[in-house]
Amino acid sequence: MATIAPNAYRAGIRDDRGFFFAMSVAMALTNVVGFGAQFLLGRSSFGAPALVHVHALVFVGWVGFFVFQSWLVARGNVNQHRRLGWLGAGWAALMVVVGITATMVMVRAGRAPFFFAPGYFLVMNSLGVLGFAGLLWWGVALRRRTEWHRRIIMCAMTAIMGPAFGRIVPAPLVIPWSAWLIFAFMLLFPLAGMIHDLRRHGRVHPAWWYGTAALVAMQLAMDLFTATPLASGLYALVTAGSPGAAIDPLAYPPFPPA
Questions:
Q1: DSSP secondary structure string, the chain?
Q2: Rg (Cα) of the chain, in Å, rounded?
Q3: 192: closest CA among 229, 155, 145?
Q4: Distance of CA 159 to the CA centre of its chain
Q5: How far apart are CA 247 and CA 243, in angstroms?
Q6: Which of 43, 130, 190, 230 has the most Cβ atoms closer than 10 angstroms to its Cβ?
Q7: pLDDT 10s per residue in the chain (258 long)?
Q8: What is the pTM of this model?
């Protein structure tokens, strides 16, 4: 019996491949729905500045790469998945640079979404992409522990699902709790993973608890740091000499005209 149980558990891990691929597809579809709806409604266009297009290419490219990596594992091509994993680790570093730069450009231009205070938007996006990269690199470090690796990578992807859900849920209707409403929807993915574990293995793998705790800590840090003088100083430094400097970082922008 001492040898049968571990073997059964490892077989269960192999069976999880289809679930994690389905999760990656669901995350990709959420992004398609969120950003696609904005395009169809005329709220975004190809006339955006070049940096916006670079940001879109980098982040959309990551989503495609993420799904492809999950597909490789689901097909049993684990060796190819591992070889490409280092590309994903480097891609995360590029996403940090591009994501934070694009956010800085937006707040400098005074174009933060109207349901976020500009100072909060600067902190939120920056910590969000840093949290993603941190979790992703942690997942890469755990690559030899398959059950941990898969779940932490899923939590990493969860960290950057905010922009997609922000375009789907009625965030403007719950100001000043917009970020927490979006975050609640983001947590549906690790929650789905926990439910899957309970049904498949009879217990929730600790990776979900650690990953979710990291996500909650990230969200709390956004609120707590934004209220500090350091955050106000950071906003002033980023927006110096730009239209964004004249905007109160803790005041919500006016609603757009109907």
A1: -TTHHHHHHHHHHHHHHHHHHHHHHHHHHHHHHHHHHHHHTTSS-TTS-HHHHHHHHHHHHHHHHHHHHHHHHHTT-HHHHHHHHHHHHHHHHHHHHHHHHHHHHHHHTT---TTS-HHHHHHHHHHHHHHHHHHHHHHHHTTTSHHHHHHHHHHHHHTT-HHHHHTTS-GGGGTTSHHHHHHHHHTHHHHHHHHHHHHHHSS--HHHHHHHHHHHHHHHHHHHHHTSHHHHHHHHHHHTTSGGGGS-TTSPPPPPP-
A2: 20
A3: 155
A4: 3
A5: 7
A6: 190
A7: 334 444 544 544 557 999 999 999 999 999 999 988 777 766 665 666 788 889 999 999 999 999 999 999 999 999 999 999 999 999 999 999 999 999 999 999 999 999 999 999 999 999 999 999 999 999 999 999 999 999 999 999 999 999 999 999 999 999 999 999 999 999 999 999 999 999 999 999 999 999 999 999 999 999 999 999 999 999 999 999 999 999 999 999 988 776
A8: 0.91
Q: Which residue has the tokens 């982040």?
A: 59
- Cα–Cα distance, 112 to 110 (Å, whole number): 6
C-beta separation of 235 from 51 below 8 A: no
